[in-house]
Amino acid sequence: MIPIQNIYYMLSYAFQVLNEQGYKSVATEHFENVADLCAAILIKGLSKQLKRGLMKDYIPKREPLTALRGKMEISETLKTNSIIKRQVVCSYDEFSENAYMNRIIKTTMLRLMVADVDKSRKKEMKKLLVFLVNVEPLPIYRINWNLRYDRNNQTYRMLVSICYLVLKGLLQTQSDGTSKLMDFLDEQRMHRLYEKFILEYFRKEHPELTVGAPQIPWQLDDDFSDMLPVMKSDIVLEKDDNILIIDAKYYAHSTQQRFNKATVHSANLYQIFTYVKNKQEELKDRQVTVSGMLLYAKTDEQIVPDNTYQMSGNQISVKTLDLNCGFDEIREQLDKLTI
């Protein structure tokens, strides 16, 4: 089990805004679970956003009015017998705080209000929800998370990401159809956070490295690539003539059982091998050494992968990162992986 404080540190690398003034106090607070942590971040974030001003957007509305506004809907007016009430149905755009991202934040806060969150934080959320009185909540399972960010709404990126973690990673449907918040993030959401954390850690803490997550092109003999999957790397570290491709893996089980013998997940090994060989071939005109690494989050299993293999001229290693320790120890583990 990962300490809640370490999840905060992971989030602070994934979202650099958490290192700004106003969020730093969160690092010293005590949290019973991840929902409690997310509530604290949302409280700080929404408080800062209210000082800047809530985002507003043009919201389409259609309603019967006594005076014409926008476009008159004749068929709708006749259908609803609005004329009898001396009204006409009008369609118009209203510049309102009922913007979609504000609605996501309100929906999440309302969900956290009935979750296992510290009473003092629920009290703070209740005060903040007063400022969202004109914002309508959304049906949780119908939220569209494909949102566009620009200069005007960039400050919402981290807030909406935390909402996503809460509603997608913590929400669990019960057998009776109701839902409740779990105390921990699900495996899929933790995998994404784990991957993003490692990438951003190397970007921030190791400026001597070129750090990215590029696509690796297939090295084809005839350029025919129909139906080939995209090779999207998790983390690529480059320094001088050395390249290390890291594939971050967060599983409940870091090994697979084959005939009562623990082995590395075969699909993972095939994947990293393919990445390395295609990258090596892409750079064959340069004197570059390409190596690969599967970096598993450590589990409670007794067998912990820690091996290095020489495969067809390239080094492939399988390592684990222990997240159930002090963050200084996590830093030390990551720093040892650099090239």
Automatic annotation (TrEMBL):
GO terms for biological process: DNA restriction-modification system. It comes from Ruminococcus bromii. NCBIfam families: PRK09736.1. This is 5-methylcytosine-specific restriction enzyme subunit McrC. Transmembrane segments: none annotated. Pfam families: McrBC. Coiled coil: none annotated.
